Amino acid sequence: MQLVAPGLVRTDEGGFHGPTLDDFFPPAIFFEGTPFEMNRIMIIRMVMVALLLLMFWLGTRKMRVIPGRWQGVFEFALDFVRKNAIEDQLGVKDGRRFQPLLMTVFFLVFVFNITGIIPGMNIAVSSVVGFPIVMAVVAYVSFIYAGIKKHPGKFLKNSLFPAGVPWPMYLLVTPVEFLSTFVMRPITLALRLLMNMLVGHMILVLLWAATNFFILEAGGIFPALGAATFAGGFAFTLFELFVSGLQAYVFTLLTSLYIQLALADEH
Questions:
Q1: Judging by beta carbons within 10 Å of its beta carbon (0-12, 13-18, 19+), is residue 203 exposed, middle or buried?
Q2: What is the mean pLDDT of residues 241-262?
Q3: What pLDDT is stored for residue 79 in this prediction?
Q4: Strand 38-39 relative to strand 28-30: parallel, antiparallel, unpaired?
Q5: How many domains is the chain partitioned into structurally?
Q6: Is the pTM above the cut of 0.85?
Q7: Which domain holds residue 144?
Q8: Which of 52, 111, 162, 182 is the most buried (most CB within 10 A)?
Q9: For the segment 12-70, what is each residue's pLDDT rounded down to a tens digit?
Q10: At residue 265, does pLDDT exceed 70?
């Protein structure tokens, strides 16, 4: 058995083995059998959180009126998220209230997504279900908190019993509103992030493992196929970089939208 890289598939005795879900459940490295058990994915998460904190510290410790190169890049990223994913939905006033939360959501999802294309990590640590669920719960609590704080005593009632609907229709409308607002929103948020990153990892692993097999293991004309899978792997790596940012943006945008709907005057 030959290990291509952590998270990549292996070839064994001249055969080719495609990617499996085992990559998402690596063995424990530290504290096995305890509540603090840590595997490779958990270690990568901790490393990325530390790098994210370091990045924010370096980007804000010496702010200047005329930004330097690093500060300019940092401000561009912050302004893009603030204007497009936050203030376009919530406006300036409410956007500032929820900006710390939503900025944290965006950058945390992004750095957890981007690990799928970082050599040595080779897996998006957001592609294991626990993290998408936690982020969906954060979004869920946020929009319910926003709605109850803005419309105490009315948010839940108006969400489940929209005004202007004939009373007999509530037998149909209320269950639909409950499912769409309080059940499907967090579920779809979690599944969208999970499945995009999981499928991306599987395709990326398949392409690079096929490249390894065709060039190093197979003979005959197969190395020519390895060149094709190498090109495909390189192109899909760039695509995964785009998807990592896109999914972080979409998650933040939808969270902002749900908060905006909870703050709307009709509640």
A1: middle
A2: 96
A3: 93
A4: antiparallel
A5: 1
A6: yes
A7: 2-263
A8: 111
A9: 455 666 778 888 999 999 999 888 899 999 999 999 999 999 988 887 777 777 777 77
A10: no
What's at 170, amino acid-wise?
Y
Full DSSP string of the chain: -EE-STTS-EEETTEE----GGGGSPPEEESTTSTT-EEHHHHHHHHHHHHHHHHHHHHHTT--SS--HHHHHHHHHHHHHIIIIIIHHHHHHHHHHHHHHHHHHHHHHHHHHHGGGSTTT-S-TTSSTHHHHHHHHHHHHHHHHHHHHHSTTTHHHHHHS-TT--GGGHHHHHHHHHIIIIIHHHHHHHHHHHHHHHHHHHHHHHHHHHHHIIIII--TTHHHHHHHHHHHHHHHHHHHHHHHHHHHHHHHHHHHHHHHHHHSTT-
